[in-house]
């Protein structure tokens, strides 16, 4: 049986609102509706006896007046009297017969209270019916002489004298009160959810490396405390970023200046050409690692996004490699424009090409492709290197991570993919890493894209080399 509530909750959860505003509003609304229903039942429970006494007094008065009129009227005038009562008061009176076809009243609490009070005033012999023969109404029997059952009559009272009046008005007023309460509940809940939404947007900005605006420290005490703590945290993070940028600028100057002097000294040392080239390569590798540290520590650029032609950007990145004699092939349409930040995207693509050449070897071709895929614009860099095992893909997105067993002969700090992944997350995009058919790695930069994909990629003659 425990599985039944779970099975019932699963489809209900799909229809329930997800936001705090509407969940709380729905809960408050249900509580108000239940409270209104409970109070209406309490009101009815205590109001029904008083109303039953009032209606019973009216019924007894009508019956007693009718009995008195019939007793005091001449026998010849009784028929005229009955017709006059029916015409003027809506009261119908018929002689009762033992064979009368009657339908008893429904067994409800208000009618039980009513019949009890009427019998207390008219006698226990009083009968009630909701239908006499084929006529519907509130029927009450009475005797001209309470001690003699020979002259018994049925009297039918108009339904509006028995039924509760103003029921629709009470329902309208109750509904109006409920609507006012729901509107107040919505205002109360929105006063809480609005600062939470602002805090959520600010937290997302912090997560993407941007500086959020100062949050208002007003409203309920709990919300104000959270906003004050968030502002303090955001301020500390901003100061930490500023200190980090200052330190990195100093590190860049203090490290690269000695490296430049060291390279100059090596080139002028007169050592054999092979040793000079090896030492210069090591110095260049050290300079590149310092650059990676600076790129990773610098974080994401704060400039706004703009329309960037990814095809042109890919041509500008790959052209210097081809001029150096490296086999870097480009397959791109004439143009593919997406919202991006040009400088971080250039850094991300250059990191992927450098990684491909480093791990696959400069003798192997590197294929760069630019294409639209549904609602995304993609730049793919494919190499023929050792690749990345599927169970290591997520780990390789972390900084200072390298596959030593697969790429033991490579150098670097393990920051290339971490930098690319950070850049793509800042663009609300992603970095996909997957094995390439025939061996190698496919690294794909995916950006949100809402433009019209070209009908067919038009490749310029100088965009691909075979």
Automatic annotation (TrEMBL):
<dbReference type="InterPro" id="IPR032408">
    <property type="entry name" value="RisS_PPD"/>
</dbReference>
<keyword id="KW-0808">Transferase</keyword>
<dbReference type="Pfam" id="PF00512">
    <property type="entry name" value="HisKA"/>
</dbReference>
<feature type="transmembrane region" description="Helical">
    <location>
        <begin position="170"/>
        <end position="189"/>
    </location>
</feature>
<feature type="transmembrane region" description="Helical">
    <location>
        <begin position="20"/>
        <end position="43"/>
    </location>
</feature>
<keyword id="KW-0547">Nucleotide-binding</keyword>
<feature type="domain" description="HAMP">
    <location>
        <begin position="190"/>
        <end position="242"/>
    </location>
</feature>
<keyword id="KW-0067">ATP-binding</keyword>
<keyword id="KW-1003">Cell membrane</keyword>
<dbReference type="GO" id="GO:0005524">
    <property type="term" value="F:ATP binding"/>
</dbReference>
<keyword id="KW-0997">Cell inner membrane</keyword>
<keyword id="KW-0418">Kinase</keyword>
<keyword id="KW-0812">Transmembrane</keyword>
<dbReference type="Pfam" id="PF00672">
    <property type="entry name" value="HAMP"/>
</dbReference>
<dbReference type="Pfam" id="PF02518">
    <property type="entry name" value="HATPase_c"/>
</dbReference>
<keyword id="KW-1133">Transmembrane helix</keyword>
<dbReference type="InterPro" id="IPR005467">
    <property type="entry name" value="His_kinase_dom"/>
</dbReference>
<dbReference type="InterPro" id="IPR003661">
    <property type="entry name" value="HisK_dim/P_dom"/>
</dbReference>
<protein>
    <recommendedName>
        <fullName>histidine kinase</fullName>
        <ecNumber>2.7.13.3</ecNumber>
    </recommendedName>
</protein>
<dbReference type="InterPro" id="IPR003660">
    <property type="entry name" value="HAMP_dom"/>
</dbReference>
<keyword id="KW-0597">Phosphoprotein</keyword>
<dbReference type="InterPro" id="IPR003594">
    <property type="entry name" value="HATPase_dom"/>
</dbReference>
<dbReference type="InterPro" id="IPR050980">
    <property type="entry name" value="2C_sensor_his_kinase"/>
</dbReference>
<dbReference type="Pfam" id="PF16524">
    <property type="entry name" value="RisS_PPD"/>
</dbReference>
<keyword id="KW-0472">Membrane</keyword>
<dbReference type="InterPro" id="IPR004358">
    <property type="entry name" value="Sig_transdc_His_kin-like_C"/>
</dbReference>
<keyword id="KW-0902">Two-component regulatory system</keyword>
<dbReference type="InterPro" id="IPR038421">
    <property type="entry name" value="RisS_PPD_sf"/>
</dbReference>
<feature type="domain" description="Histidine kinase">
    <location>
        <begin position="250"/>
        <end position="451"/>
    </location>
</feature>
<dbReference type="InterPro" id="IPR036890">
    <property type="entry name" value="HATPase_C_sf"/>
</dbReference>
<dbReference type="InterPro" id="IPR036097">
    <property type="entry name" value="HisK_dim/P_sf"/>
</dbReference>
């Amino acid at each position: 049986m425990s599985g039944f509530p779970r099975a019932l909750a699963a489809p209900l959860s799909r229809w329930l609102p997800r936001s705090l505003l509407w969940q709380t509003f729905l809960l408050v609304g249900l509580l108000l509706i239940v409270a209104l229903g409970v109070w209406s039942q309490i009101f009815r429970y205590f109001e029904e006896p008083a109303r039953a006494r009032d209606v019973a007094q009216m019924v007894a008065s009508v019956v007693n007046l009718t009995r008195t009129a019939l007793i005091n009227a001449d026998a010849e005038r009784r028929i005229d009297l009955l017709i006059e009562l029916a015409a003027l008061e809506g009261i119908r009176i018929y002689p009762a017969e033992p064979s009368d076809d009657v339908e008893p009243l429904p067994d409800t609490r208000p009618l039980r209270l009513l019949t009890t009070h009427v019998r207390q005033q008219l006698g226990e012999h009083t009968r009630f019916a909701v239908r006499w023969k084929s006529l519907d109404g509130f029927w009450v029997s009475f005797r001209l002489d309470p001690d003699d059952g020979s002259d018994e009559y049925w009297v039918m009272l108009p339904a509006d004298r028995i039924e509760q009046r103003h029921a629709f008005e009470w329902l309208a007023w109750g509904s109006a009160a409920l609507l006012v309460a729901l509107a107040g509940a919505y205002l109360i809940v929105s006063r809480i959810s609005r600062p939470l939404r602002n805090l959520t947007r600010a937290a997302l900005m912090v997560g993407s490396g941007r500086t959020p605006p100062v949050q208002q420290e007003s409203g309920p005490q709990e919300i104000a405390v959270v906003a004050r703590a968030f502002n303090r945290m955001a301020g500390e993070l901003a100061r930490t970023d500023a200190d980090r940028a200052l330190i990195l600028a100093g590190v860049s100057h203090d490290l690269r200046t000695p490296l430049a002097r060291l390279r100059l000294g090596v080139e002028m040392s007169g050592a054999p050409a092979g040793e000079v080239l090896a030492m210069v390569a090591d110095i260049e590798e050290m300079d590149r690692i310092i650059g990676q540290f600076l790129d990773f520590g610098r974080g994401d650029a704060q400039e706004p996004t703009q329309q960037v032609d990814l095809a042109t950007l890919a041509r500008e990145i790959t052209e210097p490699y081809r001029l150096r004699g490296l086999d870097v092939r480009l397959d791109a349409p004439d143009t593919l424009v997406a919202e991006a930040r040009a400088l971080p995207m250039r850094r991300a693509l250059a990191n992927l090409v450098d990684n491909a050449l480093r791990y696959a070897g400069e003798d192997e071709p590197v294929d760069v492709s630019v294409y639209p895929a549904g609602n995304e614009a993609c730049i793919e860099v494919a190499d023929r290197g050792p690749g990345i095992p599927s169970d290591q893909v997520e780990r390789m997105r972390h900084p200072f991570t390298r596959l030593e067993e697969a790429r033991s002969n490579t150098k670097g700090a393990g920051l290339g993919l971490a930098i690319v992944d950070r850049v793509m997350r800042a663009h609300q995009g992603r970095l996909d890493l997957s094995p390439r058919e025939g061996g190698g790695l496919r690294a794909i930069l995916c950006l949100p894209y809402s433009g019209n994909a070209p009908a067919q990629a038009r490749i310029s003659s100088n965009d691909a080399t075979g």
